[in-house]
């Protein structure tokens, strides 16, 4: 009898024994840790993050559907758009108002439709909990909550206006949201623990307050007049004191940030107690003054929801909401400098980079490459479906779609390479038609625009759509792809300057694709395809694996004769 058979028989005997004693539930509990290892989770290695799905790094090529598209009547218009977009993940909302139409009575029909639809179309799913907050207001709160402000109080502005925002300083509000969210996570576990269709959860949506910098109700004011929680001051390395003393002119907004973060952190903690999927909060970011009309400074509660995890509130959120795994910026501006600044702010040692909402225009295709080059675990344009919400156009975002079509077959390989620190990207910028990527002693030189003539600066593309990925597979082996770009290679010495003694050339360039994790070559590039580098131009969307080799820069025997 082999060892496996012996173990199986021991297991069967144990089950019979525990059944006889009424201990089978305990035995089931004992198997949970092994299952938990395969659950979607975030991992960190050498300062880089990966979303692990089925034990492997996963790159989310996502799309978010419109707010009112998670209905049975609308979902048939959703799935074809996602297929045309070439996504591997869909982000879809779950509405508190329809999930809990009466207190304690739950209807999970929407959740089931989304999970079953995602499985049918071979997609992973991110559920968006539209609970207490949606865009800084209480849009999706159930009617029985909205109709009972005495029990479920609203925020009050500084001049006494009752707002369409539930107070984050109310225990009743918190407990109601916790109860509903816990029920949601319990149901997701019941229907999906074995299949892992659902890989992340968004807790609320663009939280914070629209209409006031904070809650000025009697309850909130009492907390504001009191001491800042000592745990928060310690985390921020500040002296103890009142909110006004500790934070000065920013006290109102920082108080709102703590109140909101603590509230949402408690909701997430309750949900994770049921089923600990990775959880994130998306961010309505602050925009620079130049982007605001008739303002000389950003106004919290007006230009953005006050108290959300905006750039200036990240430290408070990290301290007050440890159950939230990722703070994820939504980005809708075409401004590349602002985009780079936002990426730098949220790409932190304690925060994985994830773009859960973004625009649909051509610029955002390059933005995806930039985010990927900074370790992003996922990217998702908003409003991808055929419900007609976006001007009735029956089409998906063109540039982002071609990104996804190119990268989807090798998304698993790219995710692993990124997690290993082997992947870099180059994105065209105005006045920078050529960029260098460093891989040890090998440089990848990325040039944008065509034609590219010897000795001349590449022309660029005018509207800067050029973008490229270079990933190192071995010391002299690389995976290369891109749009409107060429990629060549050179050697550097230890000082970082071009090697005075060696040169490098392409030994072999195989165009192909990964199929179920295995590389398959379709043809070998040479001639015009490799002259002046690997050329990615026109309608051809190619992926190339190249093998380089080193050779002397000069023949010393010839040089010695001169």
Main features:
562 residues; TIM Barrel; Chondroitinase Ac, Chain A, domain 3; 3 domains; 18 helices
Question: How do you describe this structure in short?
Answer:
This protein is of the alpha/beta class and 562 residues long. Helices cover 31% and strands 26% of the residues. It has three domains: 3-30, no CATH class; 58-420, TIM Barrel (Alpha-Beta Barrel), CATH 3.20.20.80; 425-560, putative beta-Galactosidase from caulobacter crescentus (Chondroitinase Ac, Chain A, domain 3).
Q: What is the structural class?
A: alpha/beta
- CATH topology group of the largest domain: TIM Barrel
Strand order of the largest sheet: 11-10-9-6-5-4-13-12
Rg of Cα set: 27 Å
Layout of helices and strands:
Blueprint: H1 3-21, H2 24-30, H3 32-36, E1 41-45, E2 48-53, E3 56-58, E4 60-64, H4 79-85, E5 89-95, H5 96-99, H6 109-120, E6 124-134, H7 143-146, E7 154-156, E8 162-166, H8 171-192, E9 198-205, H9 218-225, H10 230-236, H11 243-247, H12 251-274, E10 279-284, H13 314-320, E11 326-330, H14 336-346, E12 354-358, H15 363-373, E13 378-381, H16 398-407, H17 411-419, E14 423-427, E15 434-439, E16 442-448, E17 467-474, E18 477-483, E19 485-491, E20 502-515, E21 518-524, E22 534-536, E23 543-552, H18 556-560
Parallel strand pairs: 4-5, 4-13, 5-6, 6-9, 9-10, 10-11, 12-13
Antiparallel strand pairs: 1-2, 2-3, 7-8, 14-17, 15-16, 16-19, 17-18, 18-23, 19-22, 20-21, 20-23
């Amino acid at each position: 009898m082999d060892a496996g058979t012996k173990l199986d028989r021991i297991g069967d005997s144990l089950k019979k024994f525990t059944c006889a004693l009424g201990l089978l539930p305990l035995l089931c509990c004992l198997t949970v840790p092994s299952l938990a290892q395969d659950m979607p989770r975030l991992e960190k290695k050498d300062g880089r993050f990966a979303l692990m799905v089925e034990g492997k790094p996963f790159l989310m090529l996502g799309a978010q559907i419109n707010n009112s598209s998670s209905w049975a009547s609308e979902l048939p218009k959703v799935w074809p758009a996602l297929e045309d977009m070439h996504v591997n993940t869909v982000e879809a909302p779950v509405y508190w108002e329809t999930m809990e139409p009466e207190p304690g009575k739950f209807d999970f029909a929407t959740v089931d439709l989304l999970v079953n639809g995602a499985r049918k179309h071979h997609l992973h799913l991110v559920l968006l909990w539209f609970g207490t907050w949606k865009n800084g207001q209480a849009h999706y709160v159930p009617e029985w909550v909205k109709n009972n402000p005495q029990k479920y109080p609203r925020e009050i502005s500084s001049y006494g206006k009752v707002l369409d925002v539930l107070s984050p300083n109310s225990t009743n509000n918190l407990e109601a949201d916790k109860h509903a969210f816990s029920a949601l996570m319990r149901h997701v576990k019941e229907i999906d623990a074995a299949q892992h269709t659902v890989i992340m959860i968004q807790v609320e949506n663009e939280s914070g307050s629209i209409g006031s910098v904070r809650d000025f109700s009697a309850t909130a004011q009492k907390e504001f007049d009191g001491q800042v929680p000592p745990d928060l001051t310690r985390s921020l390395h500040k002296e103890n004191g009142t909110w006004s003393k500790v934070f000065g002119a920013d006290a109102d907004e920082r108080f709102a940030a703590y109140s909101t973060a603590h509230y949402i952190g408690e909701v997430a903690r309750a949900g994770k107690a049921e089923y600990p999927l990775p959880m994130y909060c998306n961010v309505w970011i602050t925009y620079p003054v130049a982007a605001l009309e008739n303002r000389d400074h950003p106004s919290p509660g007006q230009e953005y929801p006050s108290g959300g995890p905006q750039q200036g509130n990240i430290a408070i959120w990290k301290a007050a909401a440890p159950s939230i795994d990722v703070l994820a910026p939504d980005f809708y501006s075409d401004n590349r400098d602002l985009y780079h600044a936002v990426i730098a702010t949220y790409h932190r040692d304690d925060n994985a980079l994830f773009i859960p909402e973004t625009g649909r225009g051509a610029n955002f295709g390059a933005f995806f490459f930039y985010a990927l080059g900074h370790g992003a675990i996922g990217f998702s344009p908003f409003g991808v479906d055929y419900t007609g919400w976006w001007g009735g156009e029956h089409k998906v975002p063109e540039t982002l779609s071609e990104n996804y079509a190119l990268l989807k077959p090798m998304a698993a390989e790219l995710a692993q390479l990124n997690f290993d620190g082997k992947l870099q990207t180059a994105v065209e910028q105005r006045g920078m038609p050529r960029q260098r990527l460093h891989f040890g002693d090998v440089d990848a030189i990325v040039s944008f625009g065509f034609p590219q003539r010897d000795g001349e600066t590449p022309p660029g593309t005018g509207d800067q759509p050029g973008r490229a990925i270079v990933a190192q597979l071995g010391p002299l082996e690389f995976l290369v792809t891109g749009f409107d770009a060429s990629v060549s290679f050179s050697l550097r010495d230890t000082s970082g300057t071009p090697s005075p003694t060696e040169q490098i050339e392409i030994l072999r360039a195989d165009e192909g694709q990964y199929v179920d994790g295995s590389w398959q070559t379709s043809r070998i590039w040479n001639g015009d395809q490799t002259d002046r580098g690997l050329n990615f131009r026109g309608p051809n969307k190619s992926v190339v694996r190249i093998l380089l080799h080193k050779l002397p820069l000069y023949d010393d025997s010839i040089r010695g004769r001169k």
